[in-house]
């Protein structure tokens, strides 16, 4: 059994998609980000970055030892699960395809994800008075990454080519929410088609519907202006936790 520490956000969906695609049994452990669950010692032991998604695999594959295996960072989790199941990643022996896979996982982790995340913050949650420059800056950066994806998907159905893989699962959620981010896929038709292709997969739909009612949006949306407990990660807090003071 796999404990799946999850909140219904694009980063959470990446792992939900893989678990659903593989039909793996998982025990859903909701992380209530506005309640500060990400700072609980038990959670930090699994995810020292104090962010979800994270997993705890109680039945790891041979070679991982006897204790349950914790994994944090979405791309690392997807790779771990791909290796565990032998699915949705090119085989180790295909060195070139493996290299491609690593490139696109790192690209998402280092470029598309952080730009989308900051765009989301400025568009949806930043103090009203301070939104403008941050929004424009990250919209441009996010759309730049969409252009990279657009070019990659020219003449390809999926990021690695023919085969659907964890590289697609990693990048899809941030393209899926282009509109709520204040962007649009109109200029990126290859991305728009790929998004539809993935969205039509039953496993992807189950994943993006997981705990849908718990999404931070609509009426009652928590923002920096109305909720001091949300979006409140900082160095002081983590250092205090490290000293055992919090
Ligand atoms: N690079 C990380 C990003 C994870 C991340 O940013 N998670 C957010 C939710 S989408 C989180 O847990 N935020 C809690 C907080 O900032 O307090 C990954 O891909 O796993």
UniProtKB/TrEMBL annotation:
Ranges for domain GST C-terminal: 94-220
InterPro entries attached to this UniProt entry: Glutathione-S-Trfase_C-like (IPR010987), Glutathione-S-Trfase_C_sf (IPR036282), Glutathione_S-Trfase (IPR040079), Glutathione_S-Trfase_N (IPR004045), Thioredoxin-like_sf (IPR036249)
Transmembrane segments: none
Ranges where the GST N-terminal domain occurs: 1-89
PANTHER family the UniProt entry points to: DISULFIDE-BOND OXIDOREDUCTASE YFCG, GLUTATHIONE S-TRANSFERASE-RELATED
Name the UniProt record assigns to this protein: GST-like protein
Lineage of producing organism: Bacteria, Pseudomonadati, Pseudomonadota, Alphaproteobacteria, Rhodobacterales
């Amino acid at each position: 059994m796999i404990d799946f520490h999850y909140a219904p956000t694009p980063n959470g969906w990446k792992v939900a998609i893989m678990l659903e695609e593989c039909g793996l049994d998982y025990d859903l452990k909701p992380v209530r980000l506005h309640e500060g669950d990400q700072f609980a010692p038990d959670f930090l032991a699994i995810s020292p970055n104090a962010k979800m998604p994270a997993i705890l695999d109680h039945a790891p594959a041979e070679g991982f030892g006897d204790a349950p295996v914790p994994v944090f960072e979405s791309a690392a989790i997807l790779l771990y699960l791909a290796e565990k199941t032998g699915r949705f990643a090119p085989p180790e022996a295909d060195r070139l395809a493996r290299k491609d896979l690593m490139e696109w996982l790192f690209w998402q982790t280092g470029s598309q994800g952080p730009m989308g995340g900051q765009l989301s913050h400025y568009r949806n949650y930043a103090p009203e008075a301070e939104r403008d420059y941050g929004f424009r800056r990250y919209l441009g950066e996010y759309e730049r990454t969409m252009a990279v994806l657009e070019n990659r998907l020219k003449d390809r159905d999926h990021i690695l080519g023919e085969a659907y893989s964890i590289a697609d699962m990693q990048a899809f959620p941030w393209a899926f929410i282009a509109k709520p981010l204040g962007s649009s896929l109109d200029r990126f038709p290859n991305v728009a088609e790929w998004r539809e292709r993935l969205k039509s997969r039953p496993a992807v739909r189950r994943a993006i519907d997981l705990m849908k009612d718990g999404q931070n949006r609509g009426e009652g949306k928590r923002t920096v202006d109305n909720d001091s407990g949300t979006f409140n990660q900082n160095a002081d807090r983590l250092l205090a936790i490290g000293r055992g003071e919090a």
